[in-house]
Amino acid sequence: MLRNPWSDGPEYITQCPIKPGGNFTQEINLSTEEGTLWWHAHSDWSRATVHGAIKVFPANGTSYPYDEPDGDQTIVFASWYKSNVMDVLNESLQTGGDPNVSDAYTINGEPGDLYDCSNETMYSLLVETGKTYLLRIINSILNEEMFFAIANHNMTVVGSDGAYVKPFSTDYLFITPGQTMDVLLTANQTASYYYMVLTPFLDTDSSYDNTTSRALIKYSGNYTTPSTIPTPTFPNISDSISAQLFVVRLKSLADAAHPINVPQNITRQIFMTVSVNLFACPNSTGCTVDGDNKLAASLNNNSFLSPSTALLQEYYDNNYNLSHLVGELPNKPPTPFNYTTVANMSAYTEEGRLVITLNYGDEVEIVFQGTNIGATQNHPMHLHGYSFYLVGTGAGDFDNGTDPGRFNLVDPPEVNTIAVPRKGWSAIRFKADNPGVWFMHCHFERHTTWGMSTTVIVKNGATNATSMRPPPSYMPPCS
């Protein structure tokens, strides 16, 4: 979306929602991405079913940085509800509590054979012995991070979020909502059936869908269908060590053909707490959480108040100024504390429409700090309009005196979504060179709904080539 936030899509951030029966033409401007990206609806929880893959192949005259695979298959993980997903959302907003969890996970639209369905179906991938397949894996699940594995087969991870990584072999994937993983699978086992299995990771007491989805690897050829199909082994559902060990193995190629440019001279530092919180409710609302409260979420103790008009259009129409609608999110939480160790901190937060404003060309560092407030868990943070470098991650409170010395500034992964660890931190860097109004949020839909988000405004540069493009004539109307 280079210089083109008009096609980014989050409702009331870059545009008003597309009305029933309406249409909107997305113009996608790629820069250096190669690999797998994805698109999805960004209105309430509609991305549960409105999503798809974007496959970016090497440019003509270039090749993959690995042997060209024999096959290419997209695999999408998704949430499935028996109820209308919008009804699930609206019911939770009425009570102020956790939404009902999904009823199943699907792999390419199929729940698999472990669910109590009258006609359960299972996705299967046909492979030939000796051939290698590029699996483009997308996690579009609404509210859970996931483990994925294939029985008796290792996978070689070669990319994430539209960028190549140094290849590494693994027997499981850890993937958050919003992330993509490109992996190579070689059919090097005895011709038979093998289960692919998808199961959640969660190391907190929050509600979640504790079910498992299965799909099949089927080898071609003549053989007897096995009476018992091998199943992979997994990390434990709450194995945060395995989750983090996977994350730290992701590293950019950082070679001559695929260079990276990690910001070294930081001009803007932001320390951002991510928390699940509470709002007090009037008795008449029927809120049911810890008395008359409802669940909320925040960044630096601010729960983002969703606008009722498109901020991007307002910004453009008011000579690139939004001061009449928004305030500025502070660079650090209003009250420092021992973020991951102190119990019984007040869970209440404040609500406001606070944004982050950056100058064009700023070299930005954001440290996301998990807290011990409310329901502590991982938070998959996502920034629109940018890929960024994950330069560090760790447990406990971030130490500004020692932790930056351990940052990876040589070959950090270039991604657009990261898992901020429960009671831990993650540090990212990027250069603010894509002007516009960009949404930043947790990719757990319930947390975004509760306010764990903000908007990043990157000012125009000094030239037309470093400024936002003008809007198209067909933006969806707001009334």
UniProtKB/TrEMBL annotation:
Q: What is this protein called?
A: Laccase
Instruction: Give the primary localization class.
Output: secreted
The species this protein was found in: Theobroma cacao
CC terms in the record's Gene Ontology section: apoplast
Cofactor annotation comment: Binds 4 Cu cations per monomer.
Keyword annotations: Apoplast, Copper, Glycoprotein, Lignin degradation, Metal-binding, Oxidoreductase, Repeat, Secreted
Q: Report the catalytic activity.
A: 4 hydroquinone + O2 = 4 benzosemiquinone + 2 H2O
Which stretches make up the Plastocyanin-like domain? 3-58, 72-222, 329-461
Q: Which function does this protein serve?
A: Lignin degradation and detoxification of lignin-derived products.
Q: Name one GO biological process term.
A: lignin catabolic process
* Cofactor(s) needed by this chain: Cu cation
Entry-linked PROSITE patterns: MULTICOPPER_OXIDASE1, MULTICOPPER_OXIDASE2
Reported EC number(s) for this entry are 1.10.3.2
Family membership, please give it.
Belongs to the multicopper oxidase family.
Query: What subcellular compartments does it reside in?
Result: Secreted, Extracellular space, Apoplast
Taxonomy, superkingdom: Eukaryota
Q: Which GO terms describe its molecular function?
A: copper ion binding; hydroquinone:oxygen oxidoreductase activity
Tell me the InterPro entries matching this sequence.
Answer: Cu-oxidase-like_N (IPR011707), Cu-oxidase_2nd (IPR001117), Cu-oxidase_C (IPR011706), Cu-oxidase_fam (IPR045087), Cu_oxidase_CS (IPR033138), Cu_oxidase_Cu_BS (IPR002355), Cupredoxin (IPR008972), CuRO_2_LCC (IPR034285)
